[in-house]
Amino acid sequence: MEEGLNQVEHEHISTSLEVEQIEMNLFRSKSLWLPLRARGVFGGQVISQALVSATSCVRSEFALHSLHCYFLTSASPSTPIVYSVERLREGKSYVTRSVKAVQNGRIIFIMLCSFQKPEPWQPTHQWSMPDVPAPEQCEDEEAVYMRIIQDPKSHPALVQFFQDQLTERARSPIAIKSAKAHQEAEGGRIVRYSYWMKARDIPEYEAPFQKCILSYASDMHFIGTASRIMGLRRGGKGAESLSMLSTLDHSIWFYNNDFHAGDWLLYEIDCPRAASGRAIVHGRMYTRDGKLVAVTSQEGVVRANIKDPALQEAPEKKAQPKL
To answer: Where is the Acyl-CoA thioesterase-like N-terminal HotDog domain (predicted)?
Structure first.
């Protein structure tokens, strides 16, 4: 199994993010990835391809500082996505772009992004990076999956699930290690998960493309952390069974123009609220030397396998004998 795994070549992040310009302000995807058990194309890929398209329509002296997007419907991996960029504002300090992603004549995704002329002379402030083991002290997710697969006590269905996960993980352009799982803070009031992430085998691209790579990685383990915090899982029983997990919206704020996504970034994630079949997660991405480079938020559909009581069938009434 290990020998076979080593022969799997991962996809390069540049391939995952590549778009073809087909007209001024108009771009088309060249590859799309459908994750295992997902309803549609990986959201991080749609975000990053839209961002590559928008960045291509902005002068180099402006640096991306924020993006806000909505996923309107799932995207199919079988048809290219067309990204249409609109130049909304041309200011002296800020410029704004919108991107509409269209597939089969339908808008599947929209994004607003803003670019700023950097002001490095302004005062700074940030939260400190959490205390977690260094990436060299943490296991790759592939190693964790392999241990489950090789455990003779693992159920055959679980083994098959993690074999599929292992193959997909090995092909991913992003390497992931768990830094801390279910870490309780402030007396258990807050639960956080932390992951080390990096793009595999990339050169030190210029800052605009580094931000596109971070945007891709920012969707990994994000809304899924909400279901983990609530104890929901696929294959669980009753109220612990996860029936649906899907992103609704996603936002990123960048506060650094000098980081390398090919080195480990720490992604700290928490979930302040979940209700009504929805959950919100917040995240912070740090370089290994402690710089907080990006802050993220996402809301998604997180449903347990519980029926609406109002839709449950009423018990049948026994027929009354006629007099």
So the answer is: 38-116
Selecting among 103, 225, 287, 298, the annotated active-site residue is 298
pLDDT in tens, 265-318: 999 999 999 999 999 999 999 999 999 999 999 999 999 888 888 877 655 555
Q: Which residue among the candidates 165, 219, 270, 296 is catalytic per the annotation?
A: 219
Question: Model's pTM, two decimal places?
Answer: 0.91
CATH code of the domain covering residue 177: 2.40.160.210
Per-residue pLDDT reduced to its tens digit, 151-183: 988 888 889 988 998 989 989 999 999 999 988
Going from the C-alpha of 284 to that of each of 51, 138, 224, 270, the distances in angstroms are: 19, 19, 16, 9
**265 closest CA partner among 169, 198, 174:** 198
* In-domain check, residue 139: yes
User: Is 160 among the catalytic positions?
Assistant: no
Residue 266 falls inside a structural domain:
yes
SS3 category, 68 = strand
Catalytic residue, chosen from 45, 247, 287, 296, is: 247
Which backbone phi and psi does 265 adopt, to 5 degrees? -115, 135
Please report whether residue 318 resides in a domain.
Answer: no
Range(s) of the domain holding residue 180? 2-119+135-306
Say whether 247 is catalytic. Answer: yes
Count of domains for the chain: 1
Q: How far is Cα 309 from Cα 79, in angstroms, rounded to an integer? A: 39
* 219 in active site: yes
